[in-house]
Structures are given as C-alpha cells and as structure tokens.
Amino acid sequence: MCPPKTVVIVHNDVVGSDAPDELDVLEQVNAVSDALVTLDYAPVRLAVTLNLQATANLILKLKPHFVFNLFESVESTGRFIYFAPAVLDHLGVPYSGSSTREIFLTTHKVLSKEHLKANGLPTPRWTFVNKILTDLEEFPFPCIVKPIWEDASVGLDSASVFYDFDSLKKWADDQADNTSEMFIEEFVDGPEFNISILASPQGPEVLPPAEIKFVNFPSEMPRMVGYRAKWDADSFECQNTVRSFELSAHAAELVSAMTSIALQCWHKFNLRGYARVDFRVRKNGQPEVLEINANPCISPDSGFVAACEQAGVSYTAMIQRIVQDIHGLDSPGK
Fold this sequence. Notes:
single chain; 334 residues; alpha+beta; Rossmann fold; D-amino Acid Aminotransferase, Chain A, domain 1; six-stranded antiparallel β-sheet; four-stranded antiparallel β-sheet
C-alpha cells in the first residue's frame, strides 16, 4: 500500500496578537488539513513570510504532490497575496485555486473593476479621490471610500460612506497623503447578495445564492458589510447582519441574472477551484458586481461553506472538488 502523498498548505504567518481577519486563516488551515487527511493525503503546514527563498527551498525539499494555497497576506498587507502562487509558478508546482495573474487582478480592486467594464459586466461607478477633489469630476453621492488592495472588509465601516462633497473633502484633508491607496465607489444602497461557484468535473457549479440582510439598522447607519459586521461578534453590525438562503419567489429573475453574470466573471477572469461574486442591486433591479473573490474564505463558518452545505456538498467533498480542479496535477483526487 502506497503511503499518503504529501500536500503542503501554504498560509499567512500569523501570531496570537494579530487581528481577527488575519487569525481566521488558521481556522481554514485546520479544516483543510482535516479534509485532506480524510482524502488520504499527508498535509504539511507552511507559513509564508517575505523570505520567499526560504519558502521555495522548503517546498523543493518537501516535494509535495501539490500545494493547497491559503496564503492571503504578509504583515497584514493584502498587496502581497500573489507572492505564494508566483513562487509556485516559478517552481512548477501545481496548486489549488486561481493563478497568480487572476489573484492579482481580483485583489487589486481598481484593476478588477476595469476588467469587468472591459468585458461589459456591470459594476458600480468608481474613481480616485484626487479626480473628485482636484479635477472636480462629477460623481454620484453617496459614495464609499475603499482600500485598493484589501479583502475581508478591512478598512470599511460606517465612516467610509460619504453623502456630499464637503464631507469627502474634509476626510481627504485629514488623511493628508494617505489617499493614494484608496478609491471611491458609488454606494449602491440596495439588497446585497453573494453568489458562490465551485468547480466540478462538469464545469463550474453555481451554488445557492445568499442574501445579506441588514436587520434593524437605523436610518443613519449605512447598510454594508463592514469590518465589524464580519469580525466583531459583539457589535451591532455583526449581530444584525444576517446571511439568508430563503429568497422570495419573485427573486427568480434576479437570481438568474446574477447567476449569468457570476459565470461570466468565472470565465472572463479565468478563475479556478472556487470563487465568490458579491453583488448589490439597484432600485431598478440591475445587479452590480461589487467584487470578485478568487479563493474566498473557506473557514467552516464562512459564507462559501454555507453555500456548499445548502447544495448538499460536504466540506471534504468541497476540498476534493477544489483539488480535482488543480491544473498540472497528475492524479487529482482519490
């Protein structure tokens, strides 16, 4: 009987004092490791730092059958998210999820929106801070200021939403020169949905859609999934932001439209393994892509895993399907 094949799980190098959004990767590592053991692999964990040569040397020494990529950041900075797959591409080692280019493209929010627009896919209007403040570019309010590089709602809260030019200018003046890493997006104050996609032998499968419901939000509080809504369990935002798979019957046309757009995103961005597309819906019923998440969070309590459960796909089966979609793998799955 052949021994289990080695699989390296690459992830962020985190410590106990890190923020909740950083520590969450350890939950993913534990769950993926357990699933890989069930699938008769021998997982080895590897924290990635800026010492990429050390990472490369360890991977070469371990000679893994493939790498499961859970790497998200270095030193709490999302701009490095493509470093791990770039090293793996250089070494010629197959890995899970989307490729270096696609991870870079979907993480850089402005490039992602430009790619959406170039492919005729709907996304809220966006611009840069200086375009409004110096060039006096006309822009619809309310708007939201977002970090270009970060995922997991990092840097987003109620104070990120602006309702007029004067308040936006005051914020920019207070930030001094720290606005170059931010962009401005039209704030679509409508229903929010997540559409998750999982690879299968028959092609990408769209999982049951989830609506994000904002319960009992006061009128002055923007309805948005900010940092507290995701990571502060004791906050009003977290306790009153609810994921629901119980969509009303009249939502069928909207779900069809979002499903079509999500699949186009999968193909136009050349995604692999698993992905999630986040939408906001205008008052006229037009869904707009907020962002595309290549390799979204797969903690057991994540939205993606919840969608898999709704579709009757267990955690281990989900991991197996992600593994089966790894390009360059000789024998994908057991």
